[in-house]
Structure formats: C-alpha cells, structure tokens
Amino acid sequence: MARIVTLDGYTLTPFHFDRPNEPAPPGEPTWDELARLGDLTAYPRLPADRIVDALAGAEIALTNKARIDAAVIDALPDLRCIGVLATGVDIVDLGAARRRDVVVTNIPGYSTTSVAQHVFALLLQLTVDPASHGQAVCDGRWSTCPDFSFTLHPTAELAGRTLAIIGLGAIGMHVARIGHALGMDLATVDRPRRSPLLDELDITPLPLDDLLAHADVVSLHCPLTEQTRQLINARRLARMKPTAILINTGRGELIDEPALAEALEHGRIAAAGLDVLSAEPPPRDHPLLSAPRCLVTPHMAWATAEARRRLMDIAAANVRAFLEGAPQNVVHA
Hints:
Elements: E1 3-6, H1 14-18, H2 32-37, E2 39-42, H3 51-55, E3 60-63, H4 70-74, E4 81-84, H5 94-99, E5 103-105, H6 112-127, H7 130-138, E6 162-166, H8 170-181, E7 185-189, H9 196-200, E8 203-206, H10 208-214, E9 217-220, H11 234-239, E10 245-248, H12 257-265, E11 271-274, E12 294-296, H13 305-323
Parallel strand pairs: 1-2, 1-3, 3-4, 4-5, 6-7, 6-9, 7-8, 9-10, 10-11, 11-12
C-alpha cells in the first residue's frame, strides 16, 4: 500500500484530533476514505523542521498550509505526489516538483458557497449588527425600554447600494448572484472580454479607480499575484467613499494593512470586514485588531462542515485517481 502522510490536518478535522477515540460528530468529515487508499499517517500540525522526517518513505504528501519547498522535495526520493488540501498552491515549489516529476494536485471549488455566504455575514453584521442588538436584549435594555423597539445605532438596507466585486471567478460570481438577489447594483473591474454573466446579472464593468470611487461595498476575490499584492493601498483607499465598506475574504496581502488601519482611524472609509490577514495567526499588536469599525474573523469562511466534507471527498478522489494512473486536478508550474 502507498504510504500517505498529511502534514497539518487539524483545521480540516479538529474533532478527529481532539477526540481520537470518539466517533466524529454528525456531519463532520473524517480521514476514513483516505485511510482505505493507503497507509495513512495524519498529523494535526508539524513544525517546518520535522516535515522531511515525517515524509520519509511517503509516496503521497497531503498539505493544507505546511510549505513544501524545493529543499523538502529534493530530500524525499520516494515522493511521487503532493496533494494540496486547498485551492491555492503557493505553498508548493511547483518548479521543483516538475523537475522531480512529482504530481501536484489541488481542491478546486469546494468552498465557493461557504465563502460567498461569509461575505454577507460580515456585511450584514457591519450594516445591521444583530450581534450587538441581541446582546443588548440579553443585558435587559429592551426590557427597560419605554418603546416597543430600539436600535443602538442606525442600520442600513443593502438594496440599491453598489457592490463592487474585484475578481469574478467562481466565488466572485456567487457573491454577485447573492448581491443581485438582495437588490444591490453590481460592478466589477473592466475586462477585455465581456462575459454573458455580466449581462445576466447586469454587472457594470469599470476601470479600477472609477470602480472604487463609485462603490458602496468593495469585495475582494482576486488571486494574490505580484500585480494584486497591496492592490488596496493608501491611494486607492483615498478614492473610496467615506461611507464605503471593504470586505476581504481572499488573501490578506491584497490590502496594505497599515494604510487600511489609518483610513479607518480617520474615517476615510466607514468599515471593513476581513476574514484574512497577511500574518495568520496575527500578532496581538496587529493594527487592524484595534482599528475602529473593523470586524476580523479568523480565516473561517472556507471552513463550514459542508465545505470541509467536499474538500475531503475531492482529496480522496484525487489520491485514488493518482494511484490508478490518471491523476486529476493537476496543477502545472
């Protein structure tokens, strides 16, 4: 049987590691299907200096965020396949894998609906704030109110507001559909080829600076590249309305974080909802953790039970396909 090692499985199946002698809670994914395909060793997490030893003799390495660089690949003569347990593959040195004829696979599309849902969880919290209002009720403020209704601060409708989506891949398009259903006006960055979906959802293409100036909500869904790193910087934040909200469920490095913290401090934009930061976990003194009107969640948009089950099902299918000599979801350098 092929030796299979996963380097950092905790976030995918936390109950497996926290309660190893108990059945997984209903709906939680398991490693059972992968274990049927080979001799599986699943680590919750490993420090970088233990990765080579853990993978010694393994034919298949599975990793979510643990980095497999050229030095690791070159130190593992038995390695034949690296299965990335996510969509992005920047943690693997693809050039080194190609030189060694190591197949690299990924998991496309597993979290599309979950991430899009989280975009609107952040946005609704920032515009309606049910959490604080619910806490106020528990604190007795409704019980002592002379009126049948009260609000802690003004709330807002999303209908009629402009949602600017930067990155119209699968997640961006799902966000567009939800925004359209809520009655929002949709806009995106001008693209060289017009997609039928732009017409279907009445999405207006605009140059980036015009898009930012026009938007009430900006949601980031573009990949992290040298061209998109710190795409939202001080100059572009200055283009946005003081009433605008910035949402980022893509990559933390898409934003110049000190510039965003300063913009929030000075009221240059209204609020930000972020599920990703450039350092994860962030240091306690990260400027956005104390910035006003900034809601930060711990990179959890992808992690619904449904999305993690899809991820594990696709991961097992990828390993099975590789072992059968017909690898799928292969990523090329």
